[in-house]
Amino acid sequence: MLAVGAGHELYVETNGNPGGLPAVYLHGGPGSGCQVDHRRLFDPQRFYAVLFDQRGAGRSRPKGGRDANTLPHLIADMETIRRHYGFERWLVVGGSWGSTLALAYAEAHPERVSGLVLRATFLGTRAELETAFLINLPQFYPALYEDFLGVLPEPERAAPLDAYWRRILDPDPAVHAPAAKAWVETEGVLSMVTPRRNRLDRANLTNQGALPVTPYIEAHYFANDCFMRPNQLLDEAGRLAGIPGVIVQGRYDLLCPPATAHRLAALWSEAELRTIEAAGHLLYDPGIRDAVIAGINDVAARSRA
Prior knowledge:
It is found in: Cytoplasm. By secondary structure, the chain is an alpha/beta fold. It is 38% helix and 16% strand. Helix 2 (97-108) links the parallel strand 6 (90-95) and strand 7.
């Protein structure tokens, strides 16, 4: 547990060869936390990999904490971790929200990044969220979109994203719990090529039970434009010059579609875009995990000393 200020303590672990190439893995969400299998993306003989749960996520404390939890805080936390281990540079790997944080960190501290491997590129913009939930959702899952809107009172349906985030952040459990469950279930369907179900269980939305912290931290970030200026990551993509990279993209990713990765690759000449057919958003879709592992090894071979 590493104290980073403002009452936050981060869960941090290292894996692999202490003499190997330094690397860091950035989980998604924001708010999801690292998983055991994320360690296996890195060859333990070749890499010394750091995994950590971001503020409020996973095993970090306080769990679900949103105070002093912004993108600049997370970037500063990465620098704290890097200095703690004495790394001059490290290979930065992230998927979905992890790709957002990876890009923001690399653009803030390009001299500290030996290479980048991104999966399911997300630039943290309002437009991407509107595309996922207000265009792709009704286009591909019209009945689920009706369920998604139906959770909201009629007057709030004209601006459903703002309504969801406002409700999820409401202190009253009767308000935030159904909205958080509906958000998680809908996001889950959009993340899968073949979801097990494609409707909301309206009865389950009001059931008592533990809730993940992810929708609460996501609502906190999304309602604040991920604490970035509009189009910040593309506008500052020139700062990635000289950093080798691989972008892994599922062809049928409805949350983070290929157009986003394509726009980034057009501005970052050292990046190789690798599109995986018949795959969507998830790390465990066919071909995605293997492509990320291959990307990590390939970028390591090209990485800056």
